[in-house]
Amino acid sequence: SCFVTGMKRCCCRAAPLLALLGIARGRPVGSMRGGGGTSFLSNMCRLRGGQHGAAAGETQIFETVVSSEVTRVATSPFEGQKPGTSGLRKKTSVFLQPGYLENFIQSLFDSLPDGELRGATLVVSGDGRYGNAAAVQIICKMAAAHGVARVWVGRDGLLSTPAASCVIREREGGVACGGVILSASHNPGGPDADFGIKYNVRNGGPALESLTEEVYERSTQIREYAIVAGLPDVDLSLEGRHVFVDEKGGAPHFEVEVIDPTEDYVALMASLFDFDALRSLLRRPDMSLVFDGMHGVAGPYARAIFGALGVADEALLNCIPSEDFGGGHPDPNLTYAAALAKLMGLTGQPAGGEPPVLGAAADGDADRNMIVGRRFFVTPSDSLAVIAAHAHALPWLARQGGLRALARSMPTSGAVDRVAEELGLPLFETPTGWKYFGNLMDSHLLGGADLSPLLCGEESFGTGSSHIREKDGLWAVLCWASILAHHNVDTPEGQLVGVEEVVTQHWRRFGRNFYTRYDYENVDAAAAEEIVERLRAMGSSFRGAGYGPSEPQLLQDGFALATIDEFSYRDPVDSSTTSQQGVRLLFADGSRIVLRLSGTGSVGATVRIYIERYQPPGDEYALLANATDALRPLVDLALHLSQVRELTGREAPTVIT
Q: Helix or strand or coil: residue 109?
C-alpha cells in the first residue's frame, strides 16, 4: 500500500447494503489531527503514518465525534494559478508548496454561485497519481468548511475523468453539484512530474472559461482559506459512509462516502452497448483484443468491463494504477505506447505469431484513447469519422432515433465533416477543449436546438458523445468493438472483417484525410510565442499584398495559399467569443497547416503543428498511399514557413502522430 496514494484493494461489497439499512456503526477512523495550517505537503507526510481505523474486509459505517469548527488560515497569493485548457497543471513540487492547493481550492469555492455548496453533494477523486490521496483529504476538509454536506470519493481516491462525469450526472439521479477532479491527464506522474486539478460543473462537464477566469482573479487576491482542520483523515480504501458528528450537539455535520469507482460507469456502458453482441464477437476464435491501461486509472474499468465480456486477464496490460504510471508517460500515442504498437505489429513482427485484431490504449485519467488494428494505426480524426458513419451500429443511438449533430475541434481533420455532409447533419467546429462540446450537448437546456445525441472528438486522441460531458477512452474502444461486431454478424470463421478493412471501406466511400501532428514539448515560452508572431506577421503581409481565396499566393511544390487567419469561435449557444485559437494556413486544394500552442503542459509551452491533405475517393492507389509520403511536401512547407527548427533549436519534434 503506497504511503501517498493509499491504494489498497478492498474486497468489501456489502457497504451499499449496510448504508441502505443504516446499521452496523463501527469505530471511528484514527483522527491524526493537524493544526490550522495543515498543507498538502504536511498532509502527505502525515499519511506516511499509514494508520487505518478498520481491518481489511470490515464493512462498516464509521461515525466520528469531532468538532465542526472552521479555521481560517492566513495566506497570500501564488503566482500563475491560471487554469489552462483542462484545469490547473503544474509540477508536483509546485502543488506541494504549503498552501498552494488550499489557495486554489478556496479561490474555486469562492467563485461558485452563492449557496451552491451549502448542503450539497460534491465529487472529489482523481487518477491516482502521486499526491492524489493527500489532496483528496485536504479538499474534503475544505469542503466541510464551506457547508458541503457530503463528498463522494472513489475507493482509494480513484475515479477516471469519464467516470467522475458519470457519477456527477447519474448517481442518485444527478444530485451532485459538481466535482473536483485531480488529474494532469496524459502528463507523467510522480514527485518530479506533474499534478493537476480541475472543476466539473453540475452537468458533469468542465467549467467554462467565465468560471475559470474568476477562479484565477480570486487567486491573485486571496488572503485566507477556510478548513475544518480537526476533521480526521478518511480511510479511502474502505467503501462506506464516514459520518462526522458534532461534539457539541451530536448532530451529523459532514459525510465522506467512499464509493465503488467503477459501479456507475460500468452500469452506464452496459446501458449503451449490446454486451451480448460483444461477447459473441470476442468468443470467435479469429477475434482477439488487447488493451493497455498505461498504469493509469483506466485499468480497474477495463478489468470490470472487458472481464465481463470474456477477455482474459493477460490481454489487459498495465491495468493496475500506479502513482507514477510505471515510470512512463501515460499518453496513448505511437511514441509513448510503443509497447502496444510493437505488439500490434506496427514496428515489426511481434514475437508469438499474428498480432491481435483490435488493440487500444487509454491515458492516465482514461479520457483519451488510441485505436490500432493488426499492423494498422487509426488516426483519432479517422476514428471519430468512422464511429459517426457507423452510428446505426451503436445501440443507444439507434434507440434515440440516431445522431442529431457532429462536432470536432478546429485542429481535427475534416474527415468527420464529410460524414456530416452525407448524413445531412449539422457540423460544429470548436476551439480545443471539451467544455465547448458540453455547451452544444446542453443547447436545448439553454433555449437552443436539441443537438443530442451528439458525437464529437479532438485530434488529440479524445472521442466522446453526449452520454457524459467528457471525452471517454473506454467508450471509444467499445464503439470500435461494436463496429467490428456489426461487420462480422454473418462472416465465416477465418474471414473476420478487421480494423483496417473497416477504415479502408470508409476511405473508399468518403475519401481520405491524410493527417499528421508534430509536437514540440517543453519549448521555451518566448520562442513559442515568436513562432506564432511570425505567422501572424506573415498573415498581415499576405493580406496587404492582396492575396486571398480569389487570388491565392503560389508557394513551393505548387501549393496555393488562399487564407492565413487565426481561428476564433462564437458559441452558438451562449454567444460567448473565444479568439486566438491557432493560426491557420488554408490552401486552395483544401489542404491545411495549423499551428497552435497547447494549454495542457505544466512547464514551458508545447508547439503543435497540424498538417492535412484531402484525397477524394476514386483513386485506389492514391487513397492507400503511405501517409508519410503523401504529406512530405506539405510537412516540409510547414517547417519552412514556421521556422520551428530555427526558433526552438529542435531538429525533430518530440512526438509525431
A: helix
**DSSP one-letter code for 391:** G
Smallest Cα–Cα separation from 62: which of 193, 245, 214? Answer: 245
- Grade residue 35 by pLDDT with cuts at 50, 70 and 90: very low
Residues 572 and 443: their CA atoms lie apart, in Å, by: 9
Helix (H, G, I), strand (E, B) or coil at 127: coil
φ/ψ region of 433 (left if φ > 0, alpha if ψ in -120 to 50, else beta) reads left
Find cell 480511510 and name the residue: 235
Nearest-5° angle of CA 366, CA 598, CA 433?
A: 55
pLDDT digits (tens, 9 = 90+) for 534-543: 999 999 999 9
Cα–Cα distance, 94 to 40 (Å, whole number): 11
Residue 433 and residue 84: Cα distance in Å, rounded? 10
At 447 the pLDDT is 82
C-alpha cell at 403: 445522431
Is 528 in a helix, a strand, or coil? helix
CB 236 within 8 A of CB 155: yes
Strand partners for 377? 372
The pTM score is 0.87
Query: Which set of grid coordinates corresponds to residue 614?
Result: 484531402
Q: Provide mean pLDDT across the span 101-128.
A: 97
The 3 state secondary structure assigned to 351-379 is CCCCCCCEEEEECCCCCEEEEEECCEEEC
Residues in the chain: 657
Q: What SS3 state is found at 334?
A: coil
| Strands 605-615, 592-598: pairing kind | antiparallel
Between 263-272 and 161-170, two packed helices, what is the crossing angle to 10 degrees?
A: 80
Contacts of 352 (CB under 8 A, 6+ apart): none
What does the mean pLDDT of the chain come to? 88
Residue 1 has pLDDT above 80, yes or no: no
φ, ψ of residue 650 in degrees (nearest 5): -95, 125
Which of 96-110, 444-458, 585-599 reaches the highest mean pLDDT?
96-110
Instruction: Please state the rounded mean pLDDT for residues 417-427.
Output: 96
Taking alpha carbons only, the member of 268, 141, 156, 152 closest to residue 200 is 152
pLDDT, residue 84, reads 83
Residue 121, classified by CB atoms within 10 Å of its CB into exposed (0-12), middle (13-18) or buried (19+), is: buried
| Cell, residue 267 | 452500469
Residues annotated as catalytic are 185
